[in-house]
Amino acid sequence: MKTLIVYCSSHGTTEKAVGLICETLEGEVLTVDLKREKTMFDLRNFDAVIIGGSIHAGQIQRRIKQFIKQNHDELMEKELGLFLCCMRGGELAIEQFNHAFPQELRKNSVAMGLFGGEFLVSKMNFFERQVVKKVDNITADQSMLDIEAIMEFTSKLNNLKTMV
């Protein structure tokens, strides 16, 4: 089974999550960071597509939204995994996830994950540091990346592959 992972990583947290997914996901995997890479790919060449991003000021990255909008119909035909890296938990994290991904894609998804997140103050610009300090009172790097949630997400996809 061939899997495409499309994501955006602003400070590296989503990229870390993608790296962990790749380490444990079975089959051939192509990863594309829509923020940095210009890799050309054809969705028809993949059996499964994983889409992930992170929340900044309550929103997932614009490039992820554009990718979903441009490829919505074809994504509905794929085995789909959706994940989000965010520092919020509980109902707010679920709300952000539901806002980030259209309902039709969520319903069609075989795996969904909330992976926690990180405040990487050392990689933020001045404005981002000021916002994080004011809103969350965070002044140093902080990680709450949920490795267990990432492994559970990957396990669902691997189990699906064994059924094919």
UniProtKB/TrEMBL annotation:
GO terms for molecular function: FMN binding; menaquinone-dependent protoporphyrinogen oxidase activity. Coiled coil: none annotated. Residues 4-144 form the Flavodoxin domain. GO terms for biological process: heme biosynthetic process. This is Flavodoxin domain-containing protein.
